[in-house]
Design a protein that fits this description.
Length: 434
């Protein structure tokens, strides 16, 4: 709550916080929309594979031509990370391999990293965070996106003396969504392909939100940052509105759906018959608290919290998240406080690859949100024991054997180059087990 006062000191010293943005897509554009309205924060450089995309994004969100002229636009993210006029590098490309390379470049150049790219974080976050600590810089989740918002709520709950029983987010989910491909994704969003195309919406990206992959990635990121557990058989996506969070998201022995205390889970805004859940949490995040004594449980009731029947479990939630519009919180925390808004600590969960249909030897996997596979959240130990292929490595790799529909894909089922930087970082991350 003191961040603006810290920023005022930088303004008085004529030392603005200087950010460099890699990836001028939707998330990056939402951040750019807010930057001119935060005194003491500036974007020195924008990197995108098409240099003009940076300028186009700035115009789209209302920047003046003078503001655009004072911001360098380039194509190379590593070059941006090496610039002297950048304090904080924002990685917002969405490509896991590219994100890892950019984060390493930033760390090597003594820059803080705000990792919008959750795909990269889930693939190698613990290793990147460890390297950042060794270099004396911050490696942070992106505030405004669900993982960082959940991490903040978990931190608040524990610092207040509560036990965290569950944490996660809401989404629109039905079991059949795991098989949806980019060809039929738009009908689930109530759009025609033409409307989506006009709006510049990427069908594979939006399909990753629908088919369960993005939920898996985000819950694994939360588990790895908050010392929480991933369900052994994957996320259950129970239908649940905000008033029933404390009743549903508690251990099975207490009448809930969880295997125990301290789990990540996603709640669905749809009942299994497709009808809407009352007061759903589709756009929000939550944490379920457990009172440590009878007095605290009584206080839950006295102060209006919705609890379970015992009164011991209660929930706090945030109904919306504003993704890139809130990203400046991470940038300023890194630069002014030297603190992350959530950071990967250990390899506790993994987002692994499951087939959407029967695949043949020779088929090429197309990764997150595509036609061939979807991502499932499982415990890290299970992923290692079963040699599972992370969804972040399931891009453009060829199968060496037939794989039935709904089956896990193993690393041995594809050809991987262990000598690459991505594979080295992945191996480092796998060794940081809590």
């Amino acid at each position: 709550m003191n961040i603006i006062n810290l920023l005022r000191r930088r303004i008085d010293e004529d030392r603005p916080v200087r950010a460099g943005l890699i990836g001028a897509g939707k998330f990056g554009s939402m951040f750019l929309a807010q930057v001119p309205h935060v005194r003491g924060l500036k974007v020195s450089a924008i990197a995108d594979l098409a240099r003009e995309h940076g300028q186009t994004a700035c115009r789209t969100v209302g920047w003046t031509e003078e503001q655009i002229e004072n911001t360098v636009c380039l194509e190379n993210g590593a070059a941006l990370a090496a610039r002297d006029d950048v304090d904080v590098v924002i990685e917002a490309t969405g490509n896991p391999a590219v994100g890892i390379a950019h984060a390493l470049a930033a760390i090597e150049n003594g820059k803080h990293v705000v990792m919008v790219n959750v795909e990269a974080d889930v693939l190698a976050g613990p290793a990147l965070a460890k390297r950042a600590r060794s270099a004396g810089v911050v490696y942070s989740m992106a505030y405004g996106d669900q993982p960082a918002l959940v991490a903040e709520m978990v931190d608040w709950a524990r610092a207040s003396g509560f036990q965290v029983t569950a944490a996660g987010k809401g989404t629109k989910y039905l079991p059949a969504f795991h098989e949806v491909t980019p060809d039929d994704v738009w009908r689930h969003y109530g759009l025609t392909p033409e409307e989506a195309s006009t709006a510049g919406m990427n069908p594979q990206m939006f399909n990753s939100f629908l088919d369960g992959t993005k939920s898996a990635i985000e819950m694994v990121a939360i588990a790895n940052a908050c010392d929480l557990t991933v369900p052994k058989d994957g996320l259950a996506f129970p239908p649940c509105g905000v008033d029933r969070l404390a009743q549903v998201l508690k251990p099975q022995v207490k009448g809930g759906v969880l295997e125990g205390e301290g789990f990540v889970e996603v709640v669905s805004s749809l009942h299994r018959d497709g009808s809407d859940v009352e007061r759903d949490l589709r756009w929000g995040v939550y944490v379920v608290l457990k009172a440590q004594n009878d007095y605290a449980a009584q206080c839950f009731q006295q102060y209006g919290l919705a609890t379970d029947e015992s009164g011991q479990y209660a929930a706090m939630y945030k109904p919306f998240h504003l993704i890139g519009l809130e990203l400046g919180i991470s940038v300023l925390n890194a630069a002014l406080r030297g603190e992350p808004t959530g950071t990967s600590r250990a390899f506790r969960g993994d987002a692994v690859t499951v087939t959407k249909r029967a695949l043949k030897a020779g088929d090429i996997l197309d990764g997150e949100g595509g036609y061939t596979v979807w991502g499932k959240a499982i415990p890290a130990q299970k992923s290692l024991a079963e040699d599972c292929l992370p969804i972040g490595l399931a891009h453009g790799v060829r199968l060496k054997r037939d794989v039935a529909k709904g089956e896990l894909v193993r690393k041995a089922d594809v050809t991987l180059d262990d000598a690459t930087e991505v594979m080295r970082l992945r191996a480092e991350a796998e060794s940081i087990v809590d």
